[in-house]
């Protein structure tokens, strides 16, 4: 009996850098929109009920900063857990899976997110590593034990 969630890695095509960056750009725009929405959910009521000065004071409030810091990881982790694709990945026919071809668990998704941040730190070198890697994998693909695959056109 085969697992319908399993993907045969030997048959999978790994996307190149351009396709990955296009999906990242798309998702970045979505995350900025979500950050704006998350900010408005707090600042609009505070501004209406407590005044503009109180609304402006939120910028230095640590709880407000934590609230906003939760948005990007929540976006990626929830989408990766729900089907292995963010909206940007869906548009570019990409899916993230574990190196063994199975869907990501919470720890896999969290590791991938954290290692992806590390891949960006040295001017994106962890992403550009794909140009030199024999399997077209980024640093965070290797470190988290996950990988992106391209999906067939429908």
TrEMBL record:
<keyword id="KW-0472">Membrane</keyword>
<feature type="transmembrane region" description="Helical">
    <location>
        <begin position="29"/>
        <end position="51"/>
    </location>
</feature>
<keyword id="KW-1003">Cell membrane</keyword>
<dbReference type="GO" id="GO:0005886">
    <property type="term" value="C:plasma membrane"/>
</dbReference>
<keyword id="KW-0812">Transmembrane</keyword>
<dbReference type="InterPro" id="IPR010432">
    <property type="entry name" value="RDD"/>
</dbReference>
<feature type="transmembrane region" description="Helical">
    <location>
        <begin position="63"/>
        <end position="81"/>
    </location>
</feature>
<protein>
    <submittedName>
        <fullName>RDD family protein</fullName>
    </submittedName>
</protein>
<feature type="domain" description="RDD">
    <location>
        <begin position="14"/>
        <end position="145"/>
    </location>
</feature>
<dbReference type="Pfam" id="PF06271">
    <property type="entry name" value="RDD"/>
</dbReference>
<dbReference type="InterPro" id="IPR051791">
    <property type="entry name" value="Pra-immunoreactive"/>
</dbReference>
<feature type="transmembrane region" description="Helical">
    <location>
        <begin position="113"/>
        <end position="132"/>
    </location>
</feature>
<keyword id="KW-1133">Transmembrane helix</keyword>
């Amino acid at each position: 009996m085969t697992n319908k969630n399993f993907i045969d890695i030997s048959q999978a095509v790994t996307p190149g850098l351009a396709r990955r960056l296009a999906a990242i750009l798309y998702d970045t725009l979505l995350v900025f929109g979500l950050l704006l929405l998350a900010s408005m959910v707090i600042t609009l009521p505070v501004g209406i009920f407590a005044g503009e000065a109180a609304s402006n004071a939120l910028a230095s409030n640590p709880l407000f900063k934590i609230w906003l810091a939760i948005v990007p990881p929540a976006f990626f982790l929830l989408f990766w857990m729900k089907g292995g694709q963010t909206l940007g990945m869906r548009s570019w026919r990409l899916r993230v899976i574990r190196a063994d071809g199975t869907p990501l668990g919470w720890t896999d998704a969290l590791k991938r997110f954290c290692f992806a941040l590390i891949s960006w730190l040295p001017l994106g070198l962890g992403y550009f590593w794909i140009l030199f890697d024999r399997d077209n994998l980024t640093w965070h693909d290797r470190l988290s034990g996950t990988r992106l695959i391209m999906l067939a056109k429908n």
